[in-house]
Amino acid sequence: MSARGPRLEFAVGAFLLLALASLLVLAIASTNGRFGFGESTYTLQARFTNLGQLRPMAPVKIGGVAIGKVESISLDPKRLDALVVLSIDSRYVDLPNDTSAAILTGGLLGESYVGLQPGGSPDVLKPGDEIAFTTPAVDLIQMAGKYIFGGTGTAPAAGEGASPSDTTSESPSP
Question: In sequence order, which residues have a C-beta less than 8 Å from that of residue 75 and are 6 or more positions away?
Answer without folding.
Answer: 81, 82, 83
